[in-house]
Amino acid sequence: MSSGSNGHAPGAGALLGILRSGRPRTRGELAELTGLSRSTVSQRLDGLIEHRWVVAGEDSVSSGGRPATVFAFNGGARLVLAADLGATRARLAVIDLGMSVLAERTAELSIDQGPEQTLGWVAGAFQDLLSAAGRDLSQVCGVGIGLPGPVEHASGRPANPPIMPGWDGFAVPDWLGARLGAPVLVDNDVNVMALGEHWAARPEVDHLIFIKMGTGIGCGIISGRRLHRGAQGAAGDVGHVRVPASEAPCRCGNVGCLEAVAGGGSMAAALRASGIEAEGSRDVVALMRAGDLRATRLVRQAGREVGTVMASIVNFFNPSVIVIGGDVAEAGEQVLAGVRETIYSRSLPLATQHLGIRVSQLGDRAGVMGAAVMVVEHVLAPDTIDRIITK
Amino acid sequence: MSSGSNGHAPGAGALLGILRSGRPRTRGELAELTGLSRSTVSQRLDGLIEHRWVVAGEDSVSSGGRPATVFAFNGGARLVLAADLGATRARLAVIDLGMSVLAERTAELSIDQGPEQTLGWVAGAFQDLLSAAGRDLSQVCGVGIGLPGPVEHASGRPANPPIMPGWDGFAVPDWLGARLGAPVLVDNDVNVMALGEHWAARPEVDHLIFIKMGTGIGCGIISGRRLHRGAQGAAGDVGHVRVPASEAPCRCGNVGCLEAVAGGGSMAAALRASGIEAEGSRDVVALMRAGDLRATRLVRQAGREVGTVMASIVNFFNPSVIVIGGDVAEAGEQVLAGVRETIYSRSLPLATQHLGIRVSQLGDRAGVMGAAVMVVEHVLAPDTIDRIITK
């Protein structure tokens, strides 16, 4: 058995980690695993039980003698509120610490009405969802929010988000935390989607790239099972990578950006130019599904353009899995075929030999599940638990 | 104080970690920091002293009473042998666990003579270096080797290395370990160079990309202060990324690869085509230094080509620092200007705002220092120490 690497005795958080990742344990087993005395183990278990992180029961398979008391992770007792807010839609869920979804809903919601109106609605909708699940705010230990723009993760404040007027620098955690009485974590949508897909794909994936293809195009990156946010939290911003041989104007002011040739807006514009009614990526996918050949060709070509940019990134990053999500991913095989075609023809054989390229398993739930994962990992981090439970 | 996150009591390795990262400590301080009893602390310190990882002394600044015994990391007692093997050159060093270089040498060495002849020479050269430093093999606790080709890091075996005939699958750690009596770690040259530069740039850099520009072009990647090797250990292999608008044939069999337009071999070939004598990247840089305008233009353009590929990668990865190393980096400002020119014009402002782009601080010592860092971090990992010292 190895020992604690940071030089401190295992606290309540470490005990919880053992119970969370495995089967229920007796006091004696926990003392043996940690090197702590039985009395210290008991004292820490008392704290965990008092805060309802752990539940005590009898071991029914114990053979002979009186049944031993076993201690188990109590995933159902405490709750997380998770929201994935898009430009025009929101998905909210009440999820327990064992990652079971107790209640969820989607709604139309314009993020451009500003933070107070948007978050006010979110706070109310969370309370309604809690009531629907027969639970209340006192059981909530954290709130996770995904936003459709850059976020300074440490402070939870949006940073110059292009499609979120009024949100720049707004203290989302303070405002929402005051109303919900729990810590609030915020990150951008692609990062939480990557966390969600990584959770769904566990445990075998070390390095994952999640590509959101919608109005915008961006990546969430997992390196060594951890989110790679980059030096300014800007990692994954591939939407404005220059695509060779294109002079298409982009909404960012440059020309030839990936978004300008493969974003939902550019596909819809191309359809409108041929007299076909289409507003955004969802319309393009709907037209494709209805058999429109022009829409099908556009989606396939968008996949190729994304694949061309990702081909270099596959050589650089050597991911285990690439997951395509966002509205355009609902085009399924058509977009996947385009992405695969260019990555397999342009990336190195060693990097593509075992590379999985697939559509999101969680679909439009990736963001809300990832927002919950972000909170659960924070709330159950040993340091967090130790700060709550006096040793 | 936080507690051990993996649920086990702090062992000798954890105590060593405290001493290594800070000032010398008394028994009482160590007991307080770890939550261990003073007798357990004493027992673990005895083991560390016996193995010479730790040294005991008197605290000279102790005020009043008799001086307290303090315990300190004994970085000078044990040694690492490190070698950076290139296609035609080798650099070897004897380095202690505090990362002081005790002896070093460079030599011409053809890696294509195969593993036994090459490594036999390396083993002999290490023994000579040890003698020169007045030390011997009994003090060596690990050996680190950087090789100029892909390596399966877990086994230390080269994997289809293109310029190393006879090395494919050769068990470098077994062969060399049997001769030197210490564990041997092996990785490819760009990975150890990245480790070396990250060590030199510490502590502020979380995300670093090291680009080696020589005959070949490749990256070593640090994400969250850890080496990102990728799913097949192939991360950083950007030499065969397709460059727009080039049809130059590459030694890999494809056309338009980055190496085919910016590698040392292609620059030398371009000079030879104009009747100028040049064999590889070192000749190109030497010609540039001698004032040859054609060589200068080639180096500058190579920087631009590398910058064009890296511009997308900067958007994707958002590194804190990009370090240019390898032979071509000796061209200094000329190559740097080319790389900067394209990255700053093509990457997103947020990702380049605080981005450092510079030439290697360690120069041609980056590889050998990084090979030592790889071994020191392994040898002093708490789990490793705990396995050696019975708890």
UniProtKB/TrEMBL annotation, chains A, B:
GO MF entry, a single one: DNA-binding transcription factor activity
Pfam families tied to this protein: MarR_2, ROK
CDD domains found in the cross-reference section: HTH_ARSR
Record-annotated HTH marR-type domain positions: 14-58
Record family assignment: Belongs to the ROK (NagC/XylR) family.
PANTHER family named among the record's database cross-references: GLUCOKINASE (PTHR18964:SF173), ROK (REPRESSOR, ORF, KINASE) FAMILY (PTHR18964)
The protein's name: ROK family transcriptional regulator
Organism: Nonomuraea cypriaca
